[in-house]
Amino acid sequence: MVQNVGTEPTSEDDSTQSAGLMDDLPPLLLGTYTPKIDAKGRMALPAKFRAQLGSGMVMARGQERCVYLLPQSEFRRIAVRIQRTSVGNKAARDYLRVFLSGAVDQDPDKQGRVLVPQMLRDYANLGDDIVVIGVGTRAEIWNRQAWEDYLADKEQGYSDIADDVLPAMGF
Predict the structure, then answer these.
(1) β-sheet bridge partners, residue 61
(2) Rounded to 5 degrees, what angle do the CA atoms 150, 154, 159 make?
(3) Count of H helices and E strands in the chain?
(4) C-alpha distance from residue 70 to each of 4, 44, 81, 124, 157 (Å)
(5) What's the gap between Cα 27 and its chain centre?
(6) Which among 66, 82, 124, 149 has most CB atoms closer than 10 A?
(7) Cα–Cα nearest to 27, from 62, 55, 65
(8) For the segment 22-67, what is each residue's pLDDT rounded down to a tens digit?
(9) Angstrom distance (rounded) from CA 52 to CA 44
(10) Do 66 and 142 meet the contact criterion of CB atoms below 8 Å apart?
(11) Is the pTM of this model over 0.70?
(12) Residue 48: how many CB atoms within 10 A of its CB?
C-alpha cells in the first residue's frame, strides 16, 4: 500500500479549507433594495439580508446621514477598535460618543421587520420612501432622494476614485 505523504491537498481538502475560511468572515451584504417604512416606523428587511444579519443586529448613525445596520459581531468589532483608539484621541472619543449614543439593538419580528427608531429616522430624514444598500459588512438605510443625489454625484468620479482606491488594495 502506498501513502501520499507531503503531497498537494486534494480538491476536497481545498474546498473544506476554503469553506472553513469563509465561515470566519463576516456576512457580505450586497445590492440595492427599496422597502417602505410603515406608519409605526417598521421596515421589512430585504430577505437576502435577514439570514446574513442574523437575529441580533444594531442600528446606528452612519456617515452622510444614513443609518447603519450591522450584525452585532461587526458592531462590537468596530466599537472595540474605536474604544482602543479613543483613550488618547479626542476626535475618536467624540466619534465614539456620537456613534454609540445613537445605536440601538434590534431583533426582527416574525415578518422580518425591524423598527427604525424615531431619532434615527430624524437623523437620516427617513420617510416611507427609502433605499437599503448592502455595503459589505453592513447595510445602509438612506432617504431615497438623498441616495439618488449621492449616487449621481459619486458616479461622476467613480473611475477616478477607483484609480486611487484599488491600487492601494492590490488590484
Answers:
(1) 67
(2) 160
(3) 7, 8
(4) 46, 15, 15, 16, 28
(5) 9
(6) 66
(7) 55
(8) 556 667 899 999 999 999 999 999 888 888 887 789 999 999 999 9
(9) 14
(10) yes
(11) yes
(12) 15
